[in-house]
């Protein structure tokens, strides 16, 4: 059969209901149908799938589509069967989820030529019995979807993908089309080389998604922010990405108890549950799906209206791919990311134990994400620059930085200083090292290279390392500087940069944003979470609550903070809690503290609300979920049995610091633990008395940082934490 333009247009209308092709789709399909290799770079929502689905339906033989996601295979097979009604055999998938009867059905439809598209997981493609079966049929072409998985620099590296070329040669050659929505120039080169298709024509669409709005928020109180955002967008479909399976489960449960229909989705769920949750999302029985970043969802839903990253992704590729699931129909799509330094530390910790080269790559990709999150430049410009595309507009009008531009300064001197430094060094270095030199920050690497002796060492000490990172990053966007990804991010100066250094012109730059440490994993751990206070509450009520706290503290001969902290009272002045459950939702108020001290405070608030006819803001009260930590029961039982804390930590694979985090969370939620057996064995009695007396008489809050500063270097942090736990159990709870 000859594939011509008229045939393609008629089949496009017949199968997919479209009158015309988007962008390069027709050129790509004709190119493939004529027996040529193609490499397609197209943003999510740009119509990649059609580039192999339509030619598969019109060409002779069966197209083999190699796809990494079981969920995506099922989704696409269902879609194709929907387009070609009455012939379910037209498309099949081949992966580990099939039983013996289903495998027999796939084989029958392949051998009789009924099947035009066969979706195969890369792992299934490596099995000898599948290779033998595919050798028996005529293959029209191979499509490698999510081709970035081939590259170790891609955001979802899969070793099986690197064997695809060898397996194709074993089965029998046919044209190859590789497709991806995210690929830097380095990844593109890696894909083409690995698939042995350097002769392929590259079809690259713009990566710009003008309908998407990008925003990065400080991660102070993400749960409350998310619930508020979803309530302001009722009935809209959305995806929330989290770093861990545990957080996925917790957040999905939290959304549900706050009246938002949500379901979890991660690799730890059984296949049946995953399929049910995916179908519920596609069928709009639920509004929100909460998923792990590590597990690609593969949900082809055109009207996802928001994508929220509860945790920062580990690469820009991952971020672009995930945000790209919003607004695939060209309509509204909001992409909101919560960012804190703690997330970065967690991701760096996950890399430990991996080969050094892999760690270097991971850290380099992570630093790109940090630079994106902290930047005050146009987010669209930053994203497109990362993928080798230039965005020429001054203001995209659809990102937080463009809608709320930050103050700029003429940075010609600073940029010239960066370029002079790089050109003066015989070796090449990374961004952080260059910034440390200019800011005058001494460290072991600077000492080893004697860079503290350089004329430019400390030449920019009036500014922080972060400031110089921002200048260097903007230098890359302006093409004055180049980062060599292959050599782990070493910075060089371009010809354009040298021209600028010779005769600098006005250069308007922005300083980067300052972010907090972010929320703690256990939101109720005393002295460690982010302080949300700072106004917005009922000032008259707040003053009354402080007076009451003073009276109670005087009566009980305790420090006022032991009763309730300032942030707790500020939350009360905002939320007007009148029941025990409502009071427990205030920051820093656990079950024990609410029961022990809460009665008088709730009575005061109830009377105040009634006297002043106040309408309480119920919609901003976030209902909390019961702490179901798997470790909680074990820790409580082990402490009751007087086991050493080292043994408890070892049994649960925890560091001592992590175990203390868990214990503090338990104590702060109202449970009393008696650690005297351990404290008396490991700490000097005088040390315990002095720290205990400090918390009883001198401490103005339960802050660990303040305690360490006040107590001085004579005391170890673990000692202070243990005595603080003892004090909270005996006095506050």
How would you describe this protein?
There is one protein chain. The protein has 5 domains: 5-204, 3-Layer(aba) Sandwich (Rossmann fold), CATH 3.40.50; 212-402, Rossmann fold, CATH 3.40.50; 406-510, Arc Repressor Mutant, subunit A (Orthogonal Bundle); 539-620, HRDC domain (DNA polymerase, domain 1), CATH 1.10.150; 630-732, Arc Repressor Mutant, subunit A. The chain has 34 helices and 17 strands. The strands form 4 sheets. Strands 3-4-2-5-6-1-7 form a 7-stranded parallel sheet, with helices on both faces. It has a 6-stranded parallel sheet with strand order 8-13-12-9-11-10, sandwiched between helices. The protein is globular, with a radius of gyration of 30 Å.
Summarize the structure.
With 733 residues, the chain is of the alpha/beta class. It is globular.
Please give the share of residues in helix.
40-55%
Tally of distinct domains: 5
CATH architecture tag of the largest domain: 3-Layer(aba) Sandwich
The CATH topology name of the largest domain reads Rossmann fold
**Spatial strand arrangement across the major sheet:** 3-4-2-5-6-1-7
Name of the top-level CATH class of the largest domain: Alpha Beta
The residue ranges in which pLDDT falls below 50 over 5 or more consecutive positions are 520-535
Number of strand segments: 17
Structural class: alpha/beta
**Shape assignment:** globular
Amino- and carboxy-terminal Cα gap: 80 Å
Can you say what the CATH homologous superfamily of the largest domain is? P-loop containing nucleotide triphosphate hydrolases
Radius of gyration: 30 Å
- Mean of the pLDDT scores? 83
